[in-house]
């Protein structure tokens, strides 16, 4: 849900931060963190945690130490210390939850990744920050033109200005090593700022840019996911999914991260199933596994040479046949263990279809062709013939 500053004004354009869903106030579902300890008081004798979490453009976050005489709250624009200048960010988390976030990311208070927070930003610095954010699309377009002119095989996906406007970081993706020394010289001459090139992966690019997935929701990597684990095709095989790259790949071109969400449940359920290479020996023939339904515990087998005829067996029946085969016993046939599915009766189950329109025919709107009358014996005689 967007913040109040993202509401539209009279002409339909967004007012306030004007960043169309990726605003810096941290209320547009961009790696948001809910402080569930906000309304709770600290025990007596305890002092508030002296570090805060600050978010910059898109998903970049950092931890900063507070001065002793400064108190901030979530959403405050603050000035942070960087090399040869300052940067402007927004406070996203304060209090004890910052300690848990640092422990989750294996960052200590004495780490070099923890910098100083100088002060709260004044109105002049905030206006300058908005002005720099408005310039980023134009700078990105010009930088892409320079890269194409040099024939570099790289994609500039995002630009991020420092809060003081003295430095700009260009994020790019490339399949191989790129020599962009001449590009940095050209961009420094064209923009009159310090340039930093930072290569990111395809998943990080999708997380920064955002988008809508095939499920109809915002991308997980741009809303809450921060741990990019490797996804292999074995995750799709465990879940009995077709290995279609068009369906399994996300907007980043890699396998979808959501393939790992239910993988543990499938792997634990498959422990009770026999392996696919185990064959069922019967007097009628050898049964080979063709398909299985993990959660309904059903397996389909077919005889060798009769691949079109599948027989559905329950998991309990399959284990019974395998146990007899281990004792060198053969069952008569698979047909004796077939599990028949009962069709749901309309009396006990919910109504699947209800006629609310009053017309049951599905082709009621089709235009039927009228049959042409055949001219023959029944046609009317000509008037001229009758007069004659």
Number of domain units: 5
Question: In which order are the strands of the major sheet placed?
Answer: 1-2-5-3-4
Name the CATH architecture of the largest domain.
2-Layer Sandwich
What oligomeric state is this? single chain
Average of per-residue pLDDT values:
82
Number of helices: 10
Structural class of the helix and strand makeup? alpha+beta
- Major β-sheet profile: 5 strands, mixed, barrel
Ends apart, CA distance between termini: 90 Å
Per CATH, the class of the largest domain reads Alpha Beta
The fraction of residues assigned to DSSP E strands is: 15-25%
How would you describe this protein?
With 388 residues, the protein is an alpha+beta fold. It has five domains: 1-30, no CATH class; 41-117, no CATH class; 127-204, 2-Layer Sandwich (GMP Synthetase, Chain A, domain 3), CATH 3.30.300; 229-271, no CATH class; 280-337, no CATH class. Helix content is 24%, strand content 18%. The chain is built from ten helices and twelve strands. The protein has helices at 96-104, 123-149, 181-191, 202-209, 220-223, 233-238, 245-248, 263-270, 315-326, 383-387, and strands spanning 51-55, 61-65, 77-82, 85-93, 115-120, 155-161, 167-173, 194-199, 280-281, 286-293, 298-303, 311-314. Strands 1-2-5-3-4 form a five-stranded mixed barrel. Strand 3 and strand 4 form a beta hairpin. Helix 2 crosses helix 3 (181-191). It is elongated, with a radius of gyration of 34 Å. The chain starts with 50 loop residues before the first strand and ends with a helix. The model is unreliable at 18-22 (pLDDT under 50).
């Amino acid at each position: 849900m967007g913040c109040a500053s993202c509401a539209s004004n009279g002409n339909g354009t967004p007012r306030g931060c004007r960043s169309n869903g990726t605003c810096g106030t941290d209320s547009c579902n961009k790696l948001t963190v809910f402080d569930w300890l906000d309304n709770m008081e600290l025990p007596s004798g305890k002092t508030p945690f002296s570090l805060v979490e600050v978010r910059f453009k898109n998903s970049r976050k950092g931890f900063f130490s507070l001065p002793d005489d400064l108190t901030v709250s979530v959403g405050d624009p603050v000035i942070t210390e960087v090399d040869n200048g300052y940067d402007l960010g927004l406070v996203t988390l304060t209090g004890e939850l910052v300690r848990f976030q640092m422990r989750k990311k294996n960052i200590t208070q004495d780490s070099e990744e923890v910098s100083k927070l100088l002060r709260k930003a004044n109105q002049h610095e905030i206006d300058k920050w908005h002005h720099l954010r408005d310039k980023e699309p134009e700078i990105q377009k010009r930088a892409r033109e320079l890269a194409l002119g040099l024939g570099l095989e790289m994609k500039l996906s995002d630009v991020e200005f420092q809060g003081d406007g003295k430095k700009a970081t260009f994020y790019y993706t490339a399949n191989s090593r790129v020599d962009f020394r001449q590009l940095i010289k050209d961009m420094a001459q064209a923009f009159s700022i310090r340039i930093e090139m930072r290569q990111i992966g395809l998943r990080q690019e999708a997380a920064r840019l955002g988008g809508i997935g095939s499920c109809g929701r915002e991308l997980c990597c741009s809303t809450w996911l921060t741990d990019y684990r490797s996804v292999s095709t074995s995750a799709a095989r465990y879940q009995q999914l077709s290995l279609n790259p068009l369906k399994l790949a996300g907007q980043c071109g890699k396998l979808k991260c959501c393939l790992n969400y239910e993988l543990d449940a499938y792997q634990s359920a498959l422990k009770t199933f026999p392996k696919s290479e185990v064959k069922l020996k019967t007097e009628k023939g050898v049964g080979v596994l063709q398909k299985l339904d993990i959660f309904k515990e059903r397996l389909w087998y077919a005889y060798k040479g009769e691949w079109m005829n599948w027989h559905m067996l329950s998991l309990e029946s399959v284990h019974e046949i395998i146990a007899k085969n281990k004792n060198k016993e053969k069952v008569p046939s698979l047909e004796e263990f077939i599990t028949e599915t009962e069709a749901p009766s309309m009396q006990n189950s919910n109504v699947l279809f209800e006629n609310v329109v009053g017309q049951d025919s599905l082709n009621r709107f089709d235009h039927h062709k009228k049959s042409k009358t055949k001219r023959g014996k029944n046609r009317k005689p000509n008037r001229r013939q009758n007069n004659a």
